[in-house]
Amino acid sequence: GRDVVVITGGLGCAPVVGLINYISRRRDQYGELHILHGVKTPNDLLYRERFDQWRRTPRTRVYLTADRPDKSWHYRIGVVTELFDELEVPASSIVMMCGPEVMMRLAARSLRDKGIDEDSIYLSMERRMECAVGLCGHCQYREYFVCKDGPIFSYRTVKELFRVPQL
Fold first, then answer.
1. How many C-beta atoms lie closer than 10 Å to residue 157's C-beta?
2. Counting CB atoms within 10 angstroms of each CB, which of 58, 71, 103, 104 has the fewest?
3. Residue 31 — pLDDT band, cuts 50, 70, 90?
């Protein structure tokens, strides 16, 4: 199986817990699992016990970082995209991201520069959904409605969205 990289920021870890647990229970079907999570402060870290549990899972690496650490923080310091310098994954890896759009934009570009195909980078575009049935158009991007067609999209599909100011 392919290596999997899960990148989250802030509350973005909540939607991918199920994905990480699924892969953790089926380690024989996947290559290496890399979990990268960034928070502003140590108090913002959700699921601390789960990150510890995932760290003990075979062929799984967990990277935690905080923008503004305190004395209790024993992990890396900085934004999650700074972890990419030490991340060595094959170009055939599949990536899932959830978190602030600025983080996902920078992460996707960096991963693309590392040789990962834009169709293998998936982003959860959960923001801007209001009616959840495609009627209000608030979440529309081109012909896609995030609430109906997503919220998961490949980077190739939504990369132009990141070029539109205030979207």
1. 19
2. 71
3. very high
